[in-house]
Amino acid sequence: MLYRQLLLMLCAGIILAGCSKKRLDTNDCEQLKTALATENLSMVKKELNGQLTAYSKENLTKLTATLLEKCNINAAPFCYDCIKTNPAQTEIQFSFAYQGTVVHCNVDFSKTSNNRMEVVGVHR
Asked: What is the DSSP annotation of 80-99?
């Protein structure tokens, strides 16, 4: 019986740890700014992946607030599900200071088959 309880607690801990979002730190923010400024899609995906949750307007709004608070990156949803692809995509406009200039770029988000947000494009 004790073995089952320990096993259950271990499994619960692993599941809960796997569901938590990664906290952004200064290095993450700088890496994200570099990725956005250079339009490096694979780096943008890598840096944002830990912040992405279920695909919804509310979660996109939370993402933009987090990026402003933690990274000083202004992010504003340009449109939600407005890019008529299958599945539809959402575009967020980003602006931030980078190496003495202000960078403006857009990131396109879509949803996976299990309704999670994913980055699918970065452009100016």
From this structure: EEEE-SSS-EEEEEEEEEET
